[in-house]
């Protein structure tokens, strides 16, 4: 299945929306990581070039968590799919609610493509906000409490039988500065790995 084709067939193609042009077997995916937003240059995204900017922080984070990975293909082989909550590049430091809403139908449909998911990791506040917007439509309440990620990390959150794990953003310059968040995100990834291995 091609992710982009599936989403465009369901929702139509939008010129400004960037979707993962990727062939995979959706039945093999056990975990989904939702990052913040697509980069300005699609070749720098997770499924772009081998030396893409997004992979330059993601692969070391997985390695720190104990995964023996060298590429995005290695991550996919483990049953882990990575996507972005916002399908348009950031234009300002903060992402407006309306920008998240524009991408929401694509993210919602994308999550529904994977029937065997056990874990959804929300990598940063934008992912947390987007996921809550989806769940609020369905259940009239947030799946993830509106408190800091630091406080949520020790609690087990489930939505429709799927473990929801709020964590920290894994791309961009911030990750290089905030070493404590790198530590916590790698610990969260290790927990996710144990869950999907069961």
TrEMBL record:
Protein name per its UniProtKB record: Uracil-DNA glycosylase
All copies of the Uracil-DNA glycosylase-like domain together span 62-139
Species this protein is from: Eisenbergiella massiliensis
Q: Show the Gene3D superfamilies listed in the entry.
A: Uracil-DNA glycosylase-like domain (3.40.470.10)
UniProt xrefs under InterPro entries: Uracil-DNA_glycosylase-like (IPR005122), Uracil-DNA_glycosylase-like_sf (IPR036895)
């Amino acid at each position: 299945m091609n992710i982009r084709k599936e989403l465009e067939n369901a929702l139509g193609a939008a010129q400004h929306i960037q979707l993962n042009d990727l062939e995979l077997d959706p039945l093999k995916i056990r975990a989904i990581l939702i990052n913040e937003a697509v980069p300005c240059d699609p070749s720098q995204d997770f499924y772009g070039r081998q030396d893409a900017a997004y992979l330059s922080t993601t692969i070391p984070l997985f390695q720190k968590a104990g995964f023996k990975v060298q590429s995005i293909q290695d991550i996919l082989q483990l049953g882990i799919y990575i996507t972005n909550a916002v399908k348009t590049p950031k234009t300002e430091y903060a992402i407006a609610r309306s920008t998240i809403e524009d991408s929401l139908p694509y993210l919602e449909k994308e999550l529904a493509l994977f029937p065997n998911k056990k874990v959804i990791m929300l990598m940063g506040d934008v992912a947390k906000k987007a996921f809550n917007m989806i769940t609020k439509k369905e259940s009239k309440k947030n799946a993830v409490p509106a408190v800091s990620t630091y406080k949520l990390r020790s609690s087990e959150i489930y939505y429709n039988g799927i473990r929801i794990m709020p964590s920290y953003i894994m791309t961009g310059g911030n990750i290089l500065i905030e070493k404590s968040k790198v530590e916590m995100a790698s610990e969260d990834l290790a927990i996710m790995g144990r869950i999907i291995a069961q």
